[in-house]
Amino acid sequence: QILRRREAQPTPPGLLVFGFLVHAVMLAWMLTLPGETKWEVLRHIWLPVLLVYPVGTVLLGMLLANEHARLRAEAAARAREGQLRLLTDHAPVLIAHCGPQQRYKFVNQPYAEMFGRRPGDLVGKHPREVLGEAAYGQARPHMEAALAGQPVEHDLEVPAHAGGIRTVHVNYAPERDASGQVVGFIAAIADVTERKRAEDLFR
Predict the structure, then answer these.
(1) What does the alpha-carbon distance between residue 92 and residue 189 come to, in Å, rounded to a whole number?
(2) What are the residues whose beta carbons fall under 8 Å from the beta carbon of 142, sequence distance 6 or more?
(3) Which of 105, 142, 146, 163 ranks highest by number of CB atoms within 10 Å?
(4) Are the beta carbons of 98 and 105 closer than 8 angstroms?
(5) pLDDT of 87-119, one tens digit each?
(6) How many H helices and E strands in the chain?
């Protein structure tokens, strides 16, 4: 097992001690000034140097530490997003994540490609803009049921970018927050066009 050392985070007491020591050394260096000059300089600056400057060191240190932590958190979030994108883009299903107003929050590459788009082009759009009025009219009651907290599945015919109509089987799963409130839904979609054609041939 590999043990990871946690990066030490500065604390206000530690920064205060550090600031005091640094500025105490600075005062000691003032003793190298010639003659009475050193005592005149020390008389004017010793109080702010030992009392005010260490506090400034604490404030600056914590500000820099917070900024560093924010940058690390953003980098970690980008890495997780990249891993999620890699996994979903190679999943055997089309995936869409919609918010409470049904607008897309995330779609994977296969979903976007079905409509001749890139994933980023669909984020923020309403399904009506992507599916078209007819397909959205079929899907709307099921989306509303998912937003009401019900898992739903149904078949849907959608116009594909490559031409023609594709039949897809859609599973909607409500998304809930920590309090149990429905805040959106996830759609997992399988293209069943060829299966439906085969079934129709044998009827």
Answers:
(1) 9
(2) 152, 154, 170, 172
(3) 146
(4) yes
(5) 666 666 899 999 999 999 999 999 999 999 999
(6) 8, 5
127/133 Cα distance (integer angstroms): 9
Angle (nearest 5°) at CA 57 between 56 and 60: 85
Contact 166, 114 (CB under 8 A): yes
Q: Which of 141, 138, 136, 142 is nearest to 171 (CA)?
A: 142
Only one residue has tokens 């050394």, namely 25
Greatest alpha-carbon span in the chain:
110
At residue 149, the 3 state secondary structure works out as coil
From 68, 55, 60, select the one nearest 17 (Cα to Cα): 55
* Angle, helices 12-30/53-89, rounded to nearest 10 degrees: 140
Q: Is the confidence at residue 53, as pLDDT, over 50?
A: yes
pLDDT at 4 over 60: no
Give Cβ neighbours of residue 52 (< 8 Å, ≥ 6 apart): none
For the chain, the C-alpha Rg in angstroms (whole number) is: 31
Q: Dihedral (C-alpha) 173, 174, 177, 182: value to the nearest 10 degrees? A: 180
